[in-house]
Amino acid sequence: MTNTVKAVQDFYPDDFAHCYGCGRLNTLGLHVRSWWEGDETVARFTPRPEHMAMPGFVYGGLIASLIDCHAMGTAAAAALRTGGSAIGDAPSPRFVTASLKVDYLKPTPLGPELEIRARVVERSERKAIIMATVSAAGTVTARGEIVAVRRPEGMAPPA
Amino acid sequence: MTNTVKAVQDFYPDDFAHCYGCGRLNTLGLHVRSWWEGDETVARFTPRPEHMAMPGFVYGGLIASLIDCHAMGTAAAAALRTGGSAIGDAPSPRFVTASLKVDYLKPTPLGPELEIRARVVERSERKAIIMATVSAAGTVTARGEIVAVRRPEGMAPPA
Fold it and tell me: Which of A114, B50, B140, B150 has its C-alpha lying 20 to 30 A from A7's C-alpha?
């Protein structure tokens, strides 16, 4: 399913598709992809063997990265939906992270595919607040709260 | 100086030296290294070209990762200092992240070496609260607040 759904990151304009976490044009990146399931967005990611905190457990910085990119994708998907569009109907708008909070509830085992789910809890034209969870084998191991804002004009690739 | 100072991560026991962010034994990792400068700890890191949010700017997930590992190192260094030890006098104790909050104050330019500074603001035997900043070319671009706890017994490499 992951490969056939339309993910919000597939429709970032090329200039904004180089993110290490979710840019389809970053050949060394993580390639996080996020799509709707009802009122939630979902992403799935299998950490690489090197993504460990210690042998057997996933690195917290990776978990923060997955939450971050999935939340930005969620903000973009919600902005599209509010405008009456599905993912892929138009270029995905690019949000950036104003703040990111992650609570690590328990160690995340390294091995299983992780599921990242998110939901917009507050939204204006400029900003979205997003709650996210990360689960491994059906157990929530981390929770995130993220503030996303529309990319400022000054944050653009060099002309 | 970075290469000659004793960094707290240099003295994590081998079993706990595989972290993607700061493990000296993780050949694919970031190798964050933290040392004292007075009452603050310092780490320096130059992002790789692929560590971008978009061309010209550092990826927020990398910034969260740098703050995370530097804060765990700071908690370990503070535990050593409280016990009367300098970094390297004894194995560094291993802390893990209970929560991580990052405020992205402004875009971080990709190119310059980043400086991560931290300070312990509250500490018990089991736990430390740490404030951190990330600077690029002398400007603070992100601020972190981290809760570190002693590694739980159950979070250990497989025997």
Answer: B50
Cβ contact A61–B56 (<8 Å) = no
Rounded Cα distance between B44 and B63, Å, is 12
**Is the four-CA dihedral A130, A134, A139, A142 of positive or negative sign?**
negative
ipTM of the complex: 0.95
State how far the Cα of A152 lies from the Cα of A49, in Å rounded to an integer. 36
**Subunit contact B54:A98, Cβ cutoff 8 A:** no
| pLDDT value for B158 | 76
Model's pTM, two decimal places? 0.96
Place of tokens 């993780």: B26
**Among B19, B95, B151, the residue to mutate for chain A (most A Cβ within 10 A):** B19
Give the separation between CA A7 and CA A51, rounded to whole angstroms.
24
Residue A121, token pair as written in the block? 């809890």
Helices (H), ranges, chain A:
60-82
The rounded distance, in Å, linking the Cα atoms of B16 and B72 is 12
